[in-house]
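Comment thread on ticket #2218

A.B. wrote:
> Attaching the input chain for the structure job we discussed in standup.
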Amino acid sequence: MTATAPAPAPGDKADERLVKTSPLKKLMGRPELGSVVGAIAVFIFFSFIADSFLQASSLATVLYAASTLGIMAVPVALLMIGGEFDLSAGVLVTTSALVSSMFSYQMTANVWVGVGVSLLVTLAIGVFNGVMLTRTDPPSFIITLGTFLMLTGMNLGFTKMISGTVSTKSISDMEGFTSAKKIFAETITIGGVGFKVTILWWLALIVVATWILLRTRVGNWIFAVGGGEDAARAVGVPVAKTKIGLYMGVAFGAWISGQHLLFSYDTVQSGEGVGNELIYIVAAVIGGCLITGGYGSAVGAAVGALIFGMVSKGIVYAEWNSDWFKFFLGVMLLLATLLNHWVRKRAEATK
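C.D. wrote:
> Ran it. Output below, let me know if you need it in another format.
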């Protein structure tokens, strides 16, 4: 004789786990929805305003600008979902390039040796940020601001001490430069239009980051830590390891960006990168990440970077004064924040 589950009483609610969610509700709950709407609006706007915007060469330039930002915006978004910031991300890109260049030049080693040493140094700085955050009381804003100041001074100090100037020596004639340039700064021609290899790096990071967030246990840990550190620790989430890993992810993105910077120009200015960390954060916020953590997506950050690329190049193609770029970027940040807030409220109301 089999037991039959009692039917729910007329006034009882069905188990929310068994309730089917409509595609519209799922769409409204996506953190990148606001940024996608914004990207479409920006694309249509510049398509009408700038005659050359829709040319294949122009779109390739837009994608390149978006990719150089997006390579950093994606791991920064994951860090923000985990509830933290990294104000050293901009100068860390320059540090990565400087280490590769100066080590290769001073040691007269194959360029790839410098690239490898740069990876180790950059990841070590990421670990330093993560360990300092998890072992001490100050918030990530203070910890990474300190790292930002130290790296800014070290970049300038070591470069002047070793090279005698504020820029590195050229390494374009060194062994391994050509092969490294193909990996980090090559231009791939498709249909007569040149596309930078950074676009492929950017797309690869989007895929990997999205897979981590949505298909792995680590992704659950990231959302849990960002939603509430104490609650996450209470259910067994390795909070310290998760945060250290997120900072290492930002460092890895900085390494890729740094190598692209180096092999695009073969010399590096020690003062570059200052202020870029704010642009990475802006791209992530435009893409739907919350400042408070626990909410966002890698795809949204990528769309935020795409909006940045369209605006930065669209202004040029429209022959506007580029001095107004930061103004438009600030307007987009405010509008995206308000739109994302409205979308999230609507999504919560329909649950």
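A.B. wrote:
> Thanks. Noting for the ticket: Residues 186 and 197 are 5 Å apart (CA to CA).
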